[in-house]
């Protein structure tokens, strides 16, 4: 699969979300960070904003739920128009059941891991997912510095995906920029969430194109790409 770029609207101007969605022309997804001030110490947006944004853009929405009780709330984000819904395994009560419900409602099911959460205990769950998100910062705030100690975890996850022959996307989120995206792609990631690297640029669409080119070049030379 070709690398995909998912600009995070957490770094966009919330008063102009429709315009900001259009500004990131060429993006594969728009990454929507949903925070509840419980699972993470910040509060952002919810279902009504996702509904409005889904009507305002043709770019599919990738909703990242950093919330408690995702088993209860995640299906509502599919109904609101999200094309992909990510829940945190640390917050989910029944992750397999939840992933199946998200899929049954017509969206891609994704599971996120905080930096301290190992991937290995969830190896048997991977076939139930369409994407796995490795957080490369602590969830809850935009603009954090990339945690390079997550690179071995990305590599181990890619090895597990290859081991089982899965068509599972591997997303990274946190501090992804022109200076870090190549490391992530080389380690095995193929979906890249970028916030300030896109919306902090003078031309967000050009930033998307530049990041994609970097990821493509790094993937082409990566040792894992032949198994993908």
Task: Write the SSE topology.
Blueprint: E1 4-7, H1 17-23, E2 30-35, H2 47-56, E3 61-66, H3 70-79, E4 84-88, H4 95-104, E5 108-113, E6 131-135, H5 151-163, E7 169-173, H6 181-187, E8 191-194, H7 196-199, H8 204-220
Parallel strand pairs: 1-8, 2-3, 3-4, 4-5, 5-6, 6-7, 7-8
Structure in words:
It holds the Pfam family Ribul_P_3_epim. Its cofactor is Zn(2+); Fe(2+); Mn(2+); Co(2+). This is Ribulose-phosphate 3-epimerase. Catalyzes the reversible epimerization of D-ribulose 5-phosphate to D-xylulose 5-phosphate. Pathway: Carbohydrate degradation. The structure is a single chain. This protein has eight helices and eight strands; from the N terminus they run E-H-E-H-E-H-E-H-E-E-H-E-H-E-H-H. The longest helix has 17 residues, at 204-220. The chain has helices spanning 17-23, 47-56, 70-79, 95-104, 151-163, 181-187, 196-199, 204-220, and strands at residues 4-7, 30-35, 61-66, 84-88, 108-113, 131-135, 169-173, 191-194. With 228 residues, the chain is α/β, with parallel strands linked by helices. An eight-stranded parallel β-sheet has the order 1-8-7-6-5-4-3-2. The radius of gyration is 16 Å and the shape is globular. The model has no long low-confidence stretch (mean pLDDT 95). It has one domain: Aldolase class I (TIM Barrel, Alpha-Beta Barrel), CATH 3.20.20.70. The termini are close together.
């Amino acid at each position: 699969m070709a690398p995909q770029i998912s600009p995070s609207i957490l770094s966009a101007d919330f008063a102009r979300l429709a315009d900001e969605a259009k500004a990131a022309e060429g993006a594969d997804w728009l990454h929507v960070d949903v925070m509840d001030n419980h699972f993470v110490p910040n509060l952002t947006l919810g279902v009504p904003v996702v509904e409005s944004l889904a009507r305002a853009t043709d770019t599919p929405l990738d909703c990242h739920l950093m919330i408690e009780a995702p088993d209860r709330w995640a299906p509502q984000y599919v109904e609101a128009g999200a094309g992909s819904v990510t829940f945190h395994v640390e917050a989910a009560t029944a992750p397999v059941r939840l992933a199946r419900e998200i899929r049954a409602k017509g969206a891609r099911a994704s599971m996120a891991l905080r930096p301290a959460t190992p991937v290995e205990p969830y190896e048997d769950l991977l076939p139930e997912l369409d994407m796995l998100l490795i957080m490369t910062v602590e969830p809850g705030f935009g603009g954090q510095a990339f945690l390079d100690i997550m690179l071995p975890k990305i590599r181990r996850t890619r090895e597990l995906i290859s081991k089982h022959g899965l068509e599972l996307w591997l997303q990274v989120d946190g501090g992804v920029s022109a200076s870090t995206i190549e490391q992530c792609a080389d380690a095995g990631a193929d979906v890249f969430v970028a916030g300030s690297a896109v919306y902090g640029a003078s031309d967000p669409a050009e930033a998307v194109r530049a990041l994609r080119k970097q990821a493509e070049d790094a993937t082409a030379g990566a040792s894992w790409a032949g198994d993908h």
